[in-house]
Amino acid sequence: MERVTSGAEQGRAGRDRERLQVDQGGQARPFMRGILVHSLMARGLGFEDAYGVANVIRDKLKGRGVVAREVLREAVHEELEQRGLAADAKASLSPTIEVRSDGGMSPFSKGFLSQSLLAAAIDPNDAFDVAREIEGTLVRQGVTDIGRRELRRTAYRNLERRFGPATAERYLVWRHFHRPDRPVILLLGGATGSGKTSLAVEVAHRLDVQRVISTDSIRQVMRIMLSPDLVPAIHASSYDAYRVIGPVAEEEDPVIAGFEAGAKIVSVGVRAMIERAIAENTSMVIDGVSIVPGLLDFHRYHQDAHIVFLLVANLDEQAYRRRFEARAQSSQRAPHRYLRNLKSILRIQDHLLELADRHDIPIVDNESRDDSVLSIIKHVTGTLRKAEEFDADELL
Question: What is the 8-class DSSP label of residue 97?
Fold first, then answer.
C-alpha cells in the first residue's frame, strides 16, 4: 500500500534539502552559524563583525546542500578580505586539527588544553599562552591530527621549558589521577568567612572537578529533616550554636561546645557525600566549617578514595574583618552579624588550628586568593604523587 506523505512531512523534507551541510572527511554535518561566529570571535573578531560574516556565508551558500570544508573556508576568507578583516582572523582559516584517542576523534581546543594545564598550578594567562603556542606550532607544521598522548607530551615539554620540571610533573600527575579507579576528594575546612567556599569553587574549576558541595547545603537539608527540638545546634550558626544547646560542663568553652555539637551532626552528611562519591567513582570538592580535623575517620576510606584535607584560615584579624565587610558589599548583606560575632568566630578558628596541628592537617593562610588556589593545587598533586606509584615515562 502506497504511503501518503503529509504536507508537514513534505515541508520538513524540503527544509532538509535546503539545509546547508559541511562535508568533514566524508561525514556531512549541519552548518551552524553560531559555531562560525564563535570560531571567528575566538580569533580576535568582535561579535558584530563575526555575526555579519556568518550571516553572509549562510546566505551565500544556502541551497547548495553539502559543501566541502575547503569551499566554506574559501568563502569565509573571501568575505573577510572584502571587509578588511582577513588579518584579524587569519588563524581561524587554518585547517581543523583533530585529536585522536581511544574514544575516536575530537577537535583540538585551545580552551580545553589551557584548562587542563591549570592543574600544573600556573596562572590562567600562562596556561592560555602555552596552549596558544602549541596550537600555533601545530598549525605551522601543517598538523591536521595528533594523538592525545602526543599532545600531552607536547604540553609537558612546553611546561618544562617555561616553568621547570616540577611544574610539568604536576600536570602529568593530575592527568594520571583525573579519571582514576579511585576518586579524588578534596576537603577544605575552616571557620566562617575564611574564604574556603570561593577557594573550593576556583580549585574545582582549575582541576576540572565537576562536583562541589558546601556543608552549608548539607546542614540545610538536615534542618528540614530534623526539628530544632531534636537537634537545636544545626538550626543555629556555628558561632552562636552555644545559645541553643543548653548548659555545658564548667571546664568547656561554650562557643566550642556549640560549634562541635552542630559539626558532629553535619559530619554524618559529609560522610554520606564521601561514600556516594566513592560509589560513583566521582571526584569531588567539599568545603565547610563542619569539616573538623579528627571528627571524621578518613583512614577508613584510604583504599577507596584519595582524600586530601586542608584547613583554610585567616590569621590576620584585621584582614578577617575586612573580608566580612567586602563580603557584605558584594552580597548586599549587612556585615554586623558576622562582625558582632567575630570573637566567637576567631575562637572557633583557633580551635580548628589546634586540631589541625594535632592531626597533621596542613593549613592554608588565605592572605591572597590566587596564591591560596595555587598552593592548594600544589598540595593536591603533591599528595597524590606520594600516595601511589607514578611513572611519568608511561604517560609520555
Answer: P
Alpha-carbon distances, residue 134 vs 130, 142, 199 (angstroms): 6, 12, 29
Q: Out of 3.30.70.20, 3.40.50.720, 3.40.50.300, 3.40.800.20, select the CATH number for domain 184-365.
A: 3.40.50.300
Output the nine-digit C-alpha cell for 80.
Answer: 573577510
User: 224 vs 104, which has greater pLDDT?
Assistant: 224
Q: What is the pLDDT of residue 3?
A: 47
Other beta carbons within 10 Å of 9:
11
Instruction: Write down the domain spans for the chain.
Output: 14-93, 98-177, 184-365
Grid coordinates standing for 360? 597533621
Mean pLDDT of the chain: 86
Confidence of residue 93 (pLDDT cuts 50, 70, 90): very low
Q: How far is CA 191 from the centre of its chain?
A: 23
Residue length of the chain: 396
Find out whether 296 and 173 touch, Cβ atoms under 8 Å.
no
Q: Where does the chain show beta strands of DSSP type E? A: 21-24, 27-30, 66-68, 98-101, 104-107, 145-147, 184-189, 211-214, 284-288, 306-313, 363-365
Which residue, chain included where needed, has cell 590562567?
Answer: 124
Cell numbers given for 15: 527544509
Question: What is the pTM assigned to this prediction?
Answer: 0.74
pLDDT (tens digit, 9 = 90+) per residue, 311-361? 999 999 888 888 888 776 655 555 678 888 999 999 999 999 999 999 999
Q: How many degrees, rounded to 5, is the angle at CA 237 between CA 232 and CA 239?
A: 110
